[in-house]
């Protein structure tokens, strides 16, 4: 499967969110990544379901909602109603993770679990088969524009193996510090979805051209890897 690209609106122009999602409509973006922060689980505050509902109306791609909040179970329906296609909660924020995952699925959304950089993938062994998505944080959550943590590559490969062993078809998503320097290696390690915020929105070429570059770069490197195997 060609990797999916999910630009993060955390790095978009908040004064022009309608224009930001409209200009992505015909871009290489597959999903729009929406980062929710509560100032408690992470030391930053972003946006909630009200803003999602407002921008969702103007967007063509599905919204991939990443909840970096405590007690996410209290807000799942609000984000579904606001337009979330997938909802990802943090392993570290959910003592009753199995119940939360079932709640997300009952709402009709794709259910994801995110792991902080220090959280081992092995902790997902008993829930992997229930998941639609696993998000590997490649920076500490809370802020855009941070440097990619190299151990993520090893972690993605280990997760890929665990999902195969559990017969899970969950997608592997990587979030934080993703650029053209690490995108192909992440896909090679097993990533299915790449989130990118500042690299896409702060590039001199602008988000549409940058996403097109990422898509072309990934297609070329996947083609080369397949030729090498053959
Ligand atoms: C970080 C967020 C990310 C963030 C990524 O806590 O979860 O989605 O937007 O931003 P970059 O790509 O700038 O690291
Ligand atoms: Zn995110």
Please provide a written account of the structure:
- Its EC number is 5.1.3.1.
- Pfam families: Ribul_P_3_epim.
- A divalent metal cation binds at residues 33, 35, 66, 175.
- It catalyses: D-ribulose 5-phosphate = D-xylulose 5-phosphate.
- It comes from Hymenobacter crusticola.
- The protein is α/β, with parallel strands linked by helices and 230 residues long.
- It has one domain (4-229): Aldolase class I (TIM Barrel), CATH 3.20.20.70.
- The chain has eight helices and eight strands, in the order E-H-E-H-E-H-E-H-E-E-H-E-H-E-H-H.
- It has helices at residues 17-23, 49-56, 76-82, 97-106, 152-166, 183-189, 198-201, 207-229, and strands at residues 4-7, 32-37, 63-68, 84-90, 110-115, 133-137, 171-175, 193-196.
- Strands 1-8-7-6-5-4-3-2 form an eight-stranded parallel sheet.
- Helix 4 (97-106) links the parallel strand 4 (84-90) and strand 5.
- Helix 2 runs parallel beside helix 3 and helix 6 (183-189) crosses helix 8.
- The longest helix has 23 residues, at 207-229.
- The model has no long low-confidence stretch (mean pLDDT 97).
- Bound molecules: D-xylitol-5-phosphate (DX5) and zinc ion.
CATH superfamily name? Aldolase class I
Q: How many domains would you count in the coordinates? A: 1
Shape descriptor: globular
Q: Low-confidence runs (pLDDT<50, min 5 residues)?
A: none
Level-1 CATH class name: Alpha Beta
* Helical residue percent band: 25-40%
Structural class: alpha/beta
Q: What gap, in angstroms, lies between the N and C termini?
A: 18 Å
Small molecules (ligands, ions, cofactors) in the structure: D-xylitol-5-phosphate, zinc ion
Q: Rounded to an integer, what's the Rg over CA atoms?
A: 17 Å
- Largest sheet, spatial ordering of strands: 1-8-7-6-5-4-3-2
Q: Would you give the CATH topology?
A: TIM Barrel
User: What percent of residues are in strands?
Assistant: 15-25%
Q: Mind summarizing the main beta sheet? A: 8 strands, parallel
Mean pLDDT: 97
Along the chain, the helix and strand elements come as: EHEHEHEHEEHEHEHH
Count of extended strands: 8
CATH architecture field: Alpha-Beta Barrel
Q: Helix count, per DSSP?
A: 8
